[in-house]
Amino acid sequence: MIDYGHFIGGKRVAGTSGRKQDVMQPMDGSVRGTVALASQAELRAAVENAKAAQPGWAATNPQRRVRVLMKFLELVAREYDALAEILAREHGKTIADAKGDIQRGLEVVEVCIGAPHMMKGEFTDGAGPGIDVYSMRQPLGVVAGITPFNFPAMIPLWKIAPAIACGNAFILKPSERDPGVPMRIAELFLEAGLPAGILNVVNGDKEVVDAILDDPDIKAIGFVGSTPIAHYIYSRGTAAGKRVQCFGGAKNHMIIMPDADMDQTVDALIGAGYGSAGERCMAISVAVPVGNDTANRLMEKLIPRVESLKVGPSTDSSADF
């Protein structure tokens, strides 16, 4: 049994709220471990820790900051299989899908290696009589991310990498359903040279989310999840004067035209419906064939593909989904 606490100040710490939740293994319904659910006081302690560490990190030049990202990429390459195993067991997607989850997060880390160039400001000579104008890009301070169950590597990395490359300290509140990979990511960043306190992971439920939304020292929040919760987080966060970026329900419709490549269409439908254990943001909830002939041709190809799929445990390399 794994006992997940939090990652604060460069080390794993036990929860102190007295509240815990089971971490399930979806492929067989067993309990893999427990995760601590933080209190408002625990979140506040993590923010104080981040707040103390952030000025020194902001004063580190961007070239040195992105060297940490480069080292992190090297360490993840070493840990790739182990991370995919944790992710697959706690989320339920296959190992191959789990590796894709990690890879899509790493691609954002790779982009952030260009931060020394992307963070450059601008200068306008002679904007008015005797007036020059310049702009500078500076870190906000302590920022936070609230990330979902379906992509426990990709979406945290989408939030973490840009924030720390720009000199911020980051508080991550991952899904309490699959905390293993976010915790390990924090350890790998520390090993890569990130100063303690610049990335803290606080596990929890609505209590800690509300604490993040209300904390005066958290200047910005990034969220991915359902539309109702996105509305709640955006409303409460902006009311507290924070910058808030929310991505809500991302399900899609597919319009299938009569001249569509039906093999490609079926591939897209299968990936959307079954990929990532059916938990993809880009899942296609409604497919609309234009005309009866289009619908019939679609079903002729779709039905045998669905019937031939092998759905199995996450660790079964022969399973399609």
Q: Overall 3D geometry?
A: globular
- What's the level 1 CATH class of the largest domain? Alpha Beta
* Beta-strand residue fraction: 15-25%
Largest sheet: 5 strands, parallel
Q: Give me the CATH architecture of the largest domain, please.
A: 3-Layer(aba) Sandwich
Could you name the CATH homologous superfamily of the largest domain?
A: Aldehyde Dehydrogenase, Chain A, domain 1
SSE string? EEEEEHHHHEEEHEHEHEHEEHEH
Give structural notes.
With 321 residues, the chain is an alpha/beta fold. The protein has 2 domains: 2-92 and 99-117 and 137-247, Aldehyde Dehydrogenase, Chain A, domain 1 (3-Layer(aba) Sandwich); 252-308, no CATH class. 46% of the residues lie in helices and 22% in strands. The protein is built from 10 helices and 14 strands. It has helices spanning 40-58, 62-91, 95-112, 115-118, 154-165, 180-191, 206-214, 227-239, 262-274, 292-308, and strands at residues 2-4, 6-8, 11-13, 20-25, 30-36, 122-128, 131-135, 142-146, 169-173, 199-201, 218-224, 243-247, 252-256, 284-289. The strands form 5 sheets. Strands 10-9-8-11-12 form a 5-stranded parallel beta sheet, sandwiched between helices. Helix 2 runs antiparallel to helix 6 and helix 3 (95-112) packs parallel to helix 5. The longest helix has 30 residues, at 62-91. It is globular, with a radius of gyration of 22 Å.
